[in-house]
Design brief:
Elements (H helix, E strand, L loop, with lengths): L1 H13 L4 H45 L1 H6 L3 H52 L5
Helix pairs in contact: 2-4
Length: about 130
């Protein structure tokens, strides 16, 4: 937080007009942050809950692999493992999609933020009254 305040202080000293953009940008980032954090937290929880049975099943399978082979039940255990992995992936993929959503939002917003800032700095630094 101190680095953000320090950066804003340097910007205020160098180009105070740019601070006009800080308030709307801060508001926009706050809205996106609240939406993203709530969604991401829930998706990570779902991923963790669905991952636990996968590891438990795999551990049980490894400890009983000789019995599974002796009774010829490999296909049943493979199918059960695949079903558990599919359930886990159904929770994992949305979490990754949310991360990509945030990255795309940040990438598309940056030019929209930098262009007006650059114009304001340019107009402030050079006197156009010829």
């Amino acid at each position: 937080m101190a680095s953000v305040i320090g950066t804003l202080a340097v910007i205020a000293f160098g180009a105070p007009v740019v601070l006009l953009m800080v308030i709307p940008l801060g508001f926009a980032y706050r809205v996106i942050m609240r939406y993203y954090l709530a969604t991401s937290r829930e998706l990570k929880r779902l991923d963790a809950v669905s991952r636990s049975p996968v590891f438990a099943w795999f551990s049980e399978t490894l400890s009983g692999v000789s019995t599974i082979r002796a009774y010829g039940q490999q296909e049943r255990f493979i199918a059960n493992n695949e079903a558990r992995l599919d359930r886990n992936m159904a929770c994992y993929m949305p979490a990754q999609s949310v991360n990509r959503w945030l990255a795309v939002r940040r990438i598309t917003r940056q030019p929209a933020e930098r262009r007006p800032t650059a114009h304001l700095v340019f107009l402030e630094r050079f006197d156009w009254s010829l």
